[in-house]
Amino acid sequence: MAAEYKVYAIGPDGHIILRIDLVCDDDAAAKERARQLVDAHPIELWRGEDFLGRFEPLS
Length: 59
Known about the structure:
- By secondary structure, the chain is α+β, with helices and mostly antiparallel strands.
- It contains 1 helix and 4 strands.
- The chain has one helix spanning 27-37; strands spanning 3-10, 16-24, 43-47, 50-55.
- A hairpin with a 5-residue loop joins strand 1 and strand 2 (16-24).
């Protein structure tokens, strides 16, 4: 069963600058999708109140 996830882009000051809602089959699929969304800002992935990871931009 698919789950709902929130992806947050984090600005240089540590505040959220963008939120993206995702629906994925599982945590692994959500993490892969979050990694694809990394651009100039770090990305945090959450499932409800559960923090699943932070993905940093490549230098």
